[in-house]
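Researcher: Final request for today, and then I'll write up notes for the group meeting. The sequence and the SMILES for adenosine-5'-triphosphate follow.
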Amino acid sequence: MSENKTVTAPAEEPKVRYGRRTSVKKIGQKSLWEKLFKRKKKKGSEEEDIADAVASTTTDLFDDDFEKAAVYCDNVVKIYKTEDVEVIALQGLDLRIDPGEIVAIIGNSGSGKSTLMNIIGGLDKQTAGMVYVTGNNMAKMTEAQIVQYKRKEVGFVWQNNARNLIPYLSALENVQIPMIIANRKERKARAKMLLDMVGLSHRYKSKLNQLSGGEQQRVAIAIALANQPKILLADEPTGAVDNKTADMIFDLFRRINKEMGVTIIIVTHDRTIARKVDRVVNIRDGRISSELLRQDAYEEELKRIAENRIVGLEESHVEYAAVDRLGRMQIPADIMKEIGLLGKGNVSLNVEGEKLVITVPEEGQKKKKGS
Ligand SMILES: Nc1ncnc2c1ncn2[C@@H]1O[C@H](COP(=O)(O)OP(=O)(O)OP(=O)(O)O)[C@@H](O)[C@H]1O
Ligand SMILES: [Mg+2]
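Model: Predicted protein-adenosine-5'-triphosphate complex:
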């Protein structure tokens, strides 16, 4: 007899090596890309039926109001091609972020976080799938439109401070640069206002090497906000600062999100970010694998922190496994291990009331059936 086991959301980060490098060697002249997306369909074949089924699913489940989303990713694939190797960095990623949300993206090294941020930020284009950001179809934009988009719609904060700031200019001058490029008026007043907002009123005249790591990042945030972007993208903004400074920077993002209404996406390795945002999206192998959502209001969290009553994330948040539009779901490795699924490959699925029951076949059961 096989034993039924109901799969529930994992409480802890699954102990799995994410970000596996999926490199595929070209076979003959046919690249993986051609094999995946440019296969010739045989008339009436099973392959054609599957392709039709996928196409109809795509249309049926497509969000009608996707253009209203701040970020809308639909089945996004990104393949990096080098001489003889192809790396699939995003493998059919679906994600919707609405205006005004503050979302963290976590995932191990190589899981595709920066790839996704670069596509959203207009620095790179997806290989397949759809990406809409603030109503712009990223794949269809011309070079000139992308330049305008990067100037006005998005602001970027990087881990590397040298990428954010020009070293020989003061903080005040640095914040004015994007406004000069965008030909904005009243630049100095706005630069001062932004530096005041990030708590650097006393640092207007300081240059890069006169600022601490945390202060440099706060200037970088002011620079990113200079042209009133709709979206603020931060890729590992706290990667080079200590925990206390990281906490302060996350608080600052939260405040900017609430006060300015700007949509914020923060990539981090730090799972405690969940305390500062309402939603944490977990990327694994180039796909959303799970989402961590806050169960109670942020105000409740602040009250708990003030009273020194810190509870575990599993008490304050609920984690959901992500199921994409094609019905694909990633089962975390620890659950796979627990139910004895590792290395098995096949399971049976049964709906029992409102539960989906995944049953691992007993040893030899599959063989018996087939023989
Ligand atoms: N320009 C590129 N050319 C080839 N492969 C690339 C390129 N950029 C990224 N990759 C590969 O794509 C995959 C995803 O990389 P990405 O930088 O998005 O990961 P990440 O989640 O941001 O990792 P980290 O946490 O280390 O920053 C990795 O396997 C990486 O080696
Ligand atoms: Mg990265």
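Model: The longest strand covers residues 85-97. Residues 19, 21, 80, 82, 87, 89, 107, 109-115 surround adenosine-5'-triphosphate (ligand 1) (CB under 6 Å).
Researcher: Thanks, that's everything.
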